[in-house]
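User: I'm curious what two different proteins look like when written out as structure tokens. Can you demonstrate?

Assistant: Sure. I'll show them one after the other, since each token string lines up with its own sequence. Here's the first protein:
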Amino acid sequence: MAEMAGPAGQIVGVDFNEAAVQRARTVVSALELGNVEVIAGDLHEVDPATLGGPFDLAYTRLFLMHQADPVRTLRRIAGLLRPGGWLVAQEALRSPPPRSHPHLEALSGYWNLVYEVLDRAGVPAGAVEDLPRSARQAGLEVAGTNGCFLTMDPAVGFEVHAASLAAVRERATRLGIAAGRVDDLVRDIRAAKGGGYEWVSSGFVLDLTLRKPAAA
């Protein structure tokens, strides 16, 4: 999901996945966040007037990694920012995959399947690794690059990974990946929650801070 924050505290989230949008709207309603709006649609096709702006800040997490043309998407986001506005992106690298102790092979299978989906969807190889270069091509300045991974309690971490995989099931099957392969991995990951594991990690995430040049 891509999120934008405006100068008056207005926050707008956009995602093409209807299920993700509905989950986000449920959270917004439960927390009574009157300044937050979540829109279902393709960021490239949504009318900018619908979104509002220009925005001070845009934030993406596990969003740019799904884009077949990252430069085009970054240009679109840059067009929604005011001069001097910021974009913070957190996107997962292909390698290394999530890990656990002891080792759970299904985590590697899950990560490989997610990237197989991206490959079949036309996402270029190395899209996340190349994001700094793509950002410059889109007219943005690279203010900082970093990276991190998280270690989580197994009950939480395995459920996060299982739910993330389940969320791509429909897209995977549309692209010719057997539903049973997805379901088997989801089952194995969820079963690990009670399997005596010490910890589970996220994938390695690239943290990228970008700035739209100020007006001359």
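Here's a second, unrelated protein for contrast:
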Amino acid sequence: MARLNDFLGALRKGGVRANQFSVMITAPVPLSVSRDIQFLARSTTLPTLTMGEIAVPYRGRQIFISGDRTYEAWEVTVISDRDQGILHTFQDWSNQIGDIGISTQRQGVGDEPANYYGTAVVQQLDRQDDGLPIRTYYLHQVWPTVVAGYELNFETNDALVEFPVTFRFNYMTIAKGKTADAMGKHAGGSASVSWGP
């Protein structure tokens, strides 16, 4: 027989809340905006772990063994700040990779991926323990593939502008518990973008 107290006992500390997180993104290219930018990340997702599979036929059956690991694109939805500094930052980062104007050349980073790769950190925070991280996901060799636009509409009232940015990354590492770097102890979607050396 199912017992309510058994269920509540399994929800230690009230479970994990989806709105307790922080995001930090570090890009390697110096841009013409301020180096430390605070913004609100309205939403993001934890990276999905996908392992490919190989079907091996054996006497009328298929035996499955592990294939290659792949990572899906990672997206952050950002609430725009008043001067749109965050939007301009991501647009400039994209422009550094490939000119968005008439030129067919890259803008100062060359063809070396290391020149435009960054790092992203996503932390699930503990709402009861001073906002310390429960688990930290490090996304390595990150770069923006899509800096989405947003609709301008006379009929839109009582709404802030927000836009998604889609990133690709090559691999990730995971750190468990409070020993991971505490990028931000702010509950909710507080996040920062900083530009590294």
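A detail about the second structure: The beta strands are 21-27, 36-44, 49-58, 61-71, 74-79, 118-125, 133-147, 162-168, 171-176, 190-195.
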